[in-house]
Amino acid sequence: MKSIYKMPLLAAMIAASMTLVACSDKAPADNAATDSATTTDTSTDTAATASDKLETKFVTIATGGASGPYNIIGTSLAEIYAKTFGVNAKTQTTGASVENVNLLTQGKVDMVLALSDVVTDAVEGKNDFKAAPITNIQQIAVLYPNVIQVVASEKSGIKNIEDLKGKRIAVGDQGSGTEVNARTLLEGFGITYDDVKVDYLGFADAADAMKAGKIEAAFFSSGLPNSSLLELEQGIKLQLVTINQDKLKKIIETKPYFKTFEIPAGTYGNAAAIPTTAVMNALLVRSDISEDDGYKLTKALFENLEGLKNAHQAANDISLETAQVGMVAPIHPGAKKYYDEQAAK
Fold it and tell me: What is this structure's pTM?
């Protein structure tokens, strides 16, 4: 009789256990990674208190190439969210800005890093997004400048943008933020893709191609320094290409997301600062993220800036003071609540 009385209880316990496992293992279908992407899971068993938990159980951040600042900073941010909130936080390596905005629009990720020019095109329905303006994304913060670093082999004789005509150049992965920067900047200097020989190569592949003599110049749009360029500098003599600032200012009149910038002396062994341009990076979320979650995600970002700075020095330019300067997408209400709260202190 003793075993008969235990059987219903045992069956109930097994059923409950199976239900819990099913619930904890099931991620929303629209958070699935794309076939071409690589996902880095930074989930942790750290249990957040009830008041600290997020309504969402998953935070997937679309970044960029594995060696780029987007992925390094995004992975560090995912670790912060996992530790702070006990959520399943992970990063997804992608082709960067354009792909990231598309993934966010489709609900396949929760947060992305993207260049402000790409985001501007998305909300205005231009260029890669001309089918229709994107309306279901919101901005958490303005991050750090993505510096457009145009480099050539010293033996190529290329010293300024105009010298790129007729040359074989890498412009970034097709549809990436780097490629959008390159195309727009070249057009501003009166150069189209018909005037050059274009290779669509990401950072690491572009560096390898230049080292092998397969290309003469390449665009690298990232925070400083770019790890692929640091490695390339050890293999060949580089020429950092100068961007004429007077011509750039005319471009800025119609493309205000560009800003004047200098690559500091010594960044890549350069004796003097190199005049170039930069575009600010944006941190975006899906617009259906709740106000409370948006507030907590923003708060955790700024309360853990030191961790991001330790991950990559480009994060040194992220600050609460500049987080709303130059926003190009509608601000998330949770982020606005956090900024208003900080301003009132």
Answer: 0.77
